[in-house]
Amino acid sequence: AASSASRPREMNWLFSSARCADATPTGTPPPAAPPFTPPGAAVSGLPADAAPAKKKTNFMELPTPVKYEELQREIMMSLKADHFEGGRFDFNKQLNQKFFLSHSVFMGSIEVPAQGNQIIKIPNATYEFGANVVDQKYMLVGRALTDGRLSGRLKYDFNDAISAKIQTSKEPGFSQVMMDLDYKGLDCQAQLKLGNGQFYGVNYLQSVSDALALGGEGFYLGGQRKSGVGFAARYNDDKTVATGQVATTGLVSLTYTTKVSEKAMLASDFMWNWNARQAQASVGYDYILRQSRLRGRIDNTGVVSAFLEERLNAGFTLTFSAEIDHANKNHKFGFGMTVGE
């Protein structure tokens, strides 16, 4: 009987010990138990199959697109490197905050087509002198080469929306003048072009969403009685840029670039000439390191190329260029050096 009487006292002691271990301050109500959540239900209270809300496009605040002539600038930077053959030395000198001088010496060769797929290379050397004047509202650039070529460019910004540009070039037996009037809106860009030979052109690019821009162009060449109309689309997000162009002249162009990491980018382009029944395609890469940049590509004809720029220190850069064409037995290798910014 004593053992049975002590058993309730032992149980009461265990319960009181448990309550003391989980005791709350006097006057503080115990915390409420969380509501029962059925298996598979969303904790936030939303349905389990509810998708995250997509960001709505604000059509009153669309981004400003690139210029129509810069529609494929990512491809031009990644796949269209400035390959050369021979040796090149560039020296840039800043005289003051607005005036720069440049000197360039090139020792290479000129390619002359021969019978079949043979190419004759004639050694050639040129020197180029350049002068640049840069200001907040205008820019002047001039170039003169020892082989008789001259070029110049003037760009003036009237305000944040309207700017004008004049480009001239002269070669033995040929000269060209081109004038551009650019308009930059909040969500669009337009351009009017006038040139010698009765050339007239106009283009327009409009953002229709945060990532998509659509536009078109037209030109008339009075000297040759030719005209054409083209349409273009550009998609651009954080990692991908895709463009497409089609023109009444028979050209179809597609480009695609994607950023696979913070340092690497892959690119590809495709061009089809309907009138000539010819197609061109290439794929390449663009790898940017802290002090160097490596670009390479291969096209559908088997031409393989690579272009390396190595920045050794401030104001000193080495350049290596290589292009191999096994089908035409045409191989090009170049080495360059640039001193000055």
What's this entry about, in short?
This protein is mainly beta and 341 residues long.
Please tell me about this protein's structure.
- The protein has 341 residues and is mostly beta strands.
- It contains 2 helices and 19 strands.
- It has a 19-stranded mixed beta barrel.
- Strand 5 and strand 6 form a beta hairpin.
- The N terminus is likely disordered.
Helix-strand layout with pairing:
Layout lengths: L1 H20 L51 H7 L6 E9 L4 E15 L5 E16 L3 E8 L4 E8 L4 E10 L2 E11 L3 E8 L3 E9 L4 E10 L4 E11 L3 E8 L3 E9 L4 E10 L4 E11 L3 E8 L4 E10 L2 E10 L4 E10 L2
Parallel strand pairs: 1-19
Antiparallel strand pairs: 1-2, 2-3, 3-4, 4-5, 5-6, 6-7, 7-8, 8-9, 9-10, 10-11, 11-12, 12-13, 13-14, 14-15, 15-16, 16-17, 17-18, 18-19
- The overall pLDDT average reads 86
Cα(first) to Cα(last) distance is 103 Å
Structural category? mainly beta
Helix content: under 10%
> How large, in whole angstroms, is the Cα Rg?
33 Å
Shape: globular
Largest sheet: 19 strands, mixed, barrel
Low-confidence stretches: 1-46
In terms of DSSP E residues, the strand content is over 45%
Instruction: Enumerate how many helices there are, as a single number.
Output: 2
Order of helices and strands: HHEEEEEEEEEEEEEEEEEEE
Q: What's the number of extended β-strand segments?
A: 19
